[in-house]
Design brief:
The complex is a heterodimer.
Chain A (H helix, E strand, L loop, with lengths): L4 H13 L7 H9 L16 H11 L9 H10 L15 H12 L8 H10 L15 H12 L8 H10 L8 H13 L7 H14 L4 H28 L1 E2 L17 E6 L4 E9 L4 H8 L185 H6 L6 E2 L10 H4 L16 E14 L2 E2 L4 E15 L2 E26 L3 E26 L2 E26 L8 E8 L8 E12 L4 E9 L13 E2 L4 E11 L5
Chain B lengths: L1 H18 L17 E6 L2 E6 L6 E9 L2 E9 L3 E8 L10 H7 L13 E3 L1 H4 L5 E8 L2 E5 L2 E3 L3 E11 L4 E10 L6 E9 L6 E9 L3 E8 L2 E4 L4 E4 L4 E10 L4 E9 L11 H5 L12 E7 L2 E4 L9 E12 L5 E15 L5 E13 L2
The chains are: A alpha+beta, B mainly beta.
């Protein structure tokens, strides 16, 4: 490093400030020694000559070198106070100036104080002016004020080490005693206060509930339901054993639409099933039959055929508008050669002059409860009906809404609703393989005798094919609406031991004849739509809010026996008032932006599947199932607060609020609820029910939403269900 | 069957309708860790700043210091601020990429020189015999007449308004680089042959440190040749002959001489001689570091402290983003052990810190 003139000047000025000069006698002696050795008589030394002085100066300055520049003088001159001539004495500095110079110089100084400094200073003072001389004593008030002022701005972080150090600082015999510690603790505890809030308990309960085992209530209800089913099954079996009769559905005919029509068709017994040869459908208008029809008498040959038999007799379908009155059973003897539905002579003939519109037809036969002595199936049919007189060649059509609608081939179809008794061993099957399967000529092959509650007898008039298009030449099963409106009370009595009394599928008539998706032996499928409303406990705790929901659902029911399997989907809108998500994000960058979102979940849009099984008790049903759910979307109200730490922070604060859809953070989409329910059939097509479910999965993400998950929140739903029919009318 | 189809069709439509509802997505910003941090001690007193906390903010910008970019960042709040600047380097290479160079250099602290780096005087231009006076302008600001000292490193735009002894005047303007590495340099050489209509010159350039790629010649700012050597007829007037030289290392320099076309007496040399005669023998200031700290009302500067043994270890340089001016900002992570001088008391104190700093680099 090079030393410049400025550096040297600076160094010199700094050094010279630290210089001090104290005169001592020794200095003179030293100087005197350098004087001339020539002494006068008094011993005084002679003064040095100029030459000697010059030589001495020259000797002492021999090693010095100094390059003088005019700038030095100018700088020095400029540093003098104004008005002070360079060569004139400087005016003396005042005390104020000296103080100011001192303050300026000392402004940046600091030093570490040692006690020795004070001692040294004290020692340097003249006697009598000792620094240790008593000072006027401070009063307690002054000391307190000084202490308070000093301690006002102090704070410190406590660490455990402090206590250890403090404790260690005590002499061995000065450690706090237990009593002393107790007193300190009591003093401190006296300052404590605790304010209880109910929310503490709610939060505590929520945490406890999350940790406990699955709800006892749920398992209790589930097992109880299973137990009820078992008991009911047991009770049913006892009932059959006692009465030798299995009562399946107790239905009543309550409609005016039902009618019994008689048509003729050809039945081809194929050993295990009977088919309707629709191509042979024609109205039998032969005199032999016309007389019977005209008399209102059902031809004995118009009956259900035993399995394997070949039926060649014509059948007359009697269209009988049914009056709103209960149907009662009438025992009809059946022989192998004779159609089962031998209404004569057991069923009194209906004279043609009697079968006037609106006439009540009642059986006058034997007691409907009396079994046939010959063991044949007795099919007691008691029909209160109005019979329209039928004459040979007369076009017989259903009186109901569809009476004017011919089938594609110009024929009419109708059903006969029969309560019947079946001979042990008699095979009762659908006439056609599928009641819904149209025959090759386009006419539906009509249903079975019992299971579809339709009697289709296909006689052939003297082996001749009927060909009168004006006659009733086909059968049309009642539509689903008609059937739905039709309540049938059918009692099938089986001789003791004829069938397994617990085989409900054999004994049960299909509750909805003509269902579009009938399965074998009584299983069939129905579709439905429903409207739903419900209430639910809050999904979070602590909260006193009750959520509500509404929606619609669709589904199918598979009926078999007394059991019904239910598969459906509900679309629900759930309204909540207490799902609030607070999220704060601090995003660092050059500064930081703090985003605070207050998101209030107002609605959730949920798809909910229903999978369940129910047990029917007449018009009542108890359901047990599960409802998996998926939250598809939501409507939230968002309030967004933003704060930005930037150079212009005040310009970057903002506050926005809005509603939007589809925000799913904070929610768990999937849920599942075991349910138990009850349904009441208001009418055959309208049902009213209620279910209770318990959500097993946490619904919210606790990291986002205020509160904690309400473990196992319970919800209840009520629904109004409409059963749909897809049958052509 | 028609009803069945209708039923299932309605079901499908309902599901699709539910699934196809317009969904808005809120992109909630994700919180992140602080980006720019500063933690260390100054004179034994700890300081800790995080941009975004306690009103601290990372300011970035570029300051022009004596014609050279100082890429800087300042992390500060109301109580404390630390400015870390990186001087640009290779100032004679217009196409250099500063970021790449910073990654490859070992940074040192800039040091303020206590003596002038360069003295501008008319004697350097041609001597007092031919030049009557010179007015010096540095960066378009009048700097003085006669001698002008340049005491800090930089790239200065220097103009000399010359009055020759024959009372003719002309001006000579060049960039002078002092205190920074010169990647290449050159001077203009010419032979003057006096003629009736004016002098004829054979001019060439004498280059050092790099090979010449091309030379552009200008007469009074009018382009006349693009070859390394020229023969040119002058008028009888005082003429400025300028050469712009492109070197193979990317350096571009420009020199000018004034030629008395009549007799070559009242001519002036280029500033190259002054630039090359700089008495500054310290390290160049290319990519050097400058620290400026403000704490408790005091200002501490690194340039006036001896930082020969100080260290700045850069552990990472990566692009961060753009600042409000739209300029690129890089995150520079490093550890600093240095000495700074308090501006008033000139007391030297040590400063040690680790940081992730934001520096705007253009």
């Amino acid at each position: 490093m090079k030393w410049t003139d400025k550096d040297i000047d600076k160094l010199y000025s700094e050094s010279s400030e630290r210089l001090a000069f104290e005169y001592k006698e020794g200095y003179w002696d030293e100087f005197d020694a350098q004087l001339s050795e020539v002494q006068d008589a008094d011993g005084a030394k002679a003064p040095l000559s100029d030459a000697a002085i010059d030589s001495m100066y020259a000797a002492s300055s021999a090693g010095l070198a100094f390059d003088y520049k005019n700038d030095y003088w100018n700088e020095f001159n400029a540093s003098l106070p104004d008005g002070a001539a360079t060569d004139s004495p400087k005016p003396a500095l005042t005390d104020v100036e000296i103080d100011a110079m001192y303050a300026a110089s000392a402004a940046g100084l600091s030093f570490d104080y040692n006690n020795s400094y004070w001692n040294e200073f004290n020692a340097s003072l003249p006697q009598g002016a000792a620094a240790d001389s008593p000072k006027p004593a401070l009063t307690d008030t002054e000391i307190d004020a000084m202490y308070a002022a000093s301690a006002a701005g102090l704070s410190f972080d406590y660490k455990g080490a402090y206590w250890k150090d403090f404790n260690a600082s005590f002499p061995a015999d000065a450690v706090l005693t237990d009593n002393g510690i107790d007193e300190l603790y009591q003093e401190s505890a006296g300052d404590l206060a605790f304010e209880y809030k109910p929310s503490y308990w709610e939060e505590f309960k929520g945490r406890i509930r999350r940790q406990r085992r699955p709800d006892f209530l749920w398992f209790t209800t589930a097992f109880s339901f299973v137990g009820v089913l078992g008991v009911m099954a047991f009770m049913n079996s006892n009932s059959v054993s006692d009465s030798k009769t299995v009562t399946a559905n107790s239905n009543k005919i309550e409609t005016q639409k039902n009618k019994i029509s008689i048509s003729q068709s050809k039945v081809e017994n194929t050993g295990t099933s009977s088919k309707v040869d629709a191509s042979a459908n024609s109205v039998t208008s032969s005199p032999a039959n016309s007389g019977e029809i005209g008399n209102g008498i059902v031809n004995p040959s118009s009956a259900i055929l035993p399995v394997g038999s070949q039926v060649v007799d014509p059948t007359v379908l009697v269209s009988i508008p049914v009056v709103q009155s209960p149907v009662r059973s009438q025992v009809v003897p059946v022989t192998p050669e004779v159609p089962v539905l031998a209404l004569t002579p057991a069923i009194p003939t209906i004279p043609s002059n009697v079968t006037t519109p609106g006439q009540d037809i009642r059986p006058v036969g034997p007691d409907t409860n009396t079994p046939s002595p010959n063991g044949t199936i007795e099919a007691p049919v008691v029909v209160e009906t109005q019979v329209t007189p039928v004459t040979p060649g007369q076009d017989i059509r259903p009186v109901g809404p569809d009476t004017n609608t011919p089938s594609p081939n110009g024929t009419q179809q109708a059903s006969v609703v029969v309560e019947t008794q079946v001979t042990p061993g008699q095979d009762i099957r659908p006439v056609g393989p599928d009641a819904n399967t149209p025959s090759p000529n386009g006419t539906p092959e009509n249903g079975s005798l019992v299971e579809n509650n339709a009697i289709i007898v296909n006689p052939t008039l003297n082996g001749a094919e009927p060909n009168n298009p004006k006659d009733v030449n086909s059968t049309q099963p009642l539509s689903a609406d008609e059937l739905a409106a039709l309540e049938i009370e059918t009692e099938v009595r089986l001789p003791y031991g004829a069938h397994d009394p617990l085989d409900l599928s054999v004994s049960l008539p299909a509750p909805y004849p003509g269902s579009p998706l009938s399965f074998s032996r009584g299983a069939f499928v129905l579709a439905y739509v429903q409207g739903i409303g419900g209430l639910s406990q809050s999904l979070v705790i602590p909260s006193d809010e009750i959520s509500n929901s509404f929606g619609i659902g669709i589904g199918t029911e598979v009926h078999k026996g007394n059991f019904t399997w239910n598969f459906g989907v509900n679309a629900l809108v759930e309204n909540h008032n207490d799902l609030v998500l607070n999220r704060t994000a601090k995003v660092y960058g050059f500064g930081s932006d703090v985003y605070q979102f207050n998101i209030d979940y107002k609605q959730m849009y949920t798809l909910e599947a229903m999978i369940g099984v129910g047990y029917n008790l007449g018009r009542h049903r108890i359901d047990l199932g599960v409802r998996p759910s998926f939250v598809m979307s939501s409507r939230v109200h968002i309030e967004e607060l933003g704060t930005s730490t930037t150079e212009f922070a005040s310009d970057n604060d903002y506050n926005e609020s809005r509603d939007l859809f589809g925000f799913m953070d904070g929610l768990h989409r999937f849920g599942i609820k075991p349910t138990i329910g009850y349904m009441f059939k208001v009418s055959p097509s309208i049902s009213l029910g209620a279910t209770i479910g318990i959500e097993l999965r946490p619904s919210i993400n606790e990291d986002f939403i205020k509160g904690v998950n309400n473990t196992r929140p319970i919800d209840g739903q009520i629904y109004l269900r409409k059963t749909l029919s897809f049958r052509k009318k | 069957m028609r009803k069945v189809n209708t039923y299932f069709l309605l079901c499908a439509v309902a599901v699709l309708a539910l699934g196809s509802c317009t969904k808005e997505v809120i992109v909630l910003p994700e919180p992140n860790d602080p980006v720019f941090t500063l933690n260390g001690t100054l004179a034994g007193i700890e300081f800790d700043l995080v941009a975004g906390d306690d009103d601290a903010f990372m300011h970035t910008g570029t300051e022009m210091v004596n014609g050279v970019n100082l890429f800087s960042g300042e992390l500060s709040n109301d109580d404390f601020s630390l400015e870390l600047g990186i001087f640009d380097g290779m100032v004679d290479k217009p196409g250099h990429i500063t970021v790449d160079e910073i990654k490859n250099v070992t940074p040192t602290f800039a040091r303020h020189s206590s003596e002038p780096l360069l003295v501008l005087s008319k004697s350097m231009l041609g001597g007092s015999q031919v030049i009557q006076s010179v007015d010096w302008y540095i960066n378009n600001t009048f700097a003085g007449s006669g001698e002008v000292k340049i005491e800090e490193p930089g790239k200065y735009a220097v103009c000399a308004f010359i009055t020759f002894m024959n009372d003719s005047t002309n001006q000579l303007c060049e960039d002078i680089i002092v205190g920074y590495e010169r990647s290449a340099n050159f001077s203009i050489l010419y032979d003057f042959q006096q003629g009736q209509q004016g002098g004829f010159i054979n001019a060439s350039i004498s280059a050092v440190d790099a090979s010449v790629v091309s030379v552009e010649w200008f007469e009074d700012d009018v382009s006349i040749y693009t070859s390394q050597t020229i023969g040119h007829q002058l008028s009888t007037e005082s003429t400025r002959l300028k050469a712009i030289v492109h070197f193979d290392n990317g350096t571009v320099r420009e020199k000018t001489v004034i030629i008395d076309g009549e007799s070559n007496v009242y001519s002036a040399k280029s500033f190259s001689v002054m630039e090359m005669s700089s008495i500054y023998d310290g390290p160049s200031q290319d990519f050097n570091i400058r620290l400026k700290i403000k704490s408790d009302g005091k200002t501490y500067l690194s340039e006036y402290a001896n930082n020969e043994n100080s260290t700045l270890v850069i552990t990472g340089v990566e692009f961060y983003g753009k600042n409000t001016e739209g300029n690129d900002v890089y995150k520079v992570a490093g550890v600093v052990n240095a000495v700074v001088m308090e501006e008033v008391t000139e007391k030297m104190v040590s400063v040690n810190f680790s940081t992730v700093f934001g520096v705007e680099i253009q």
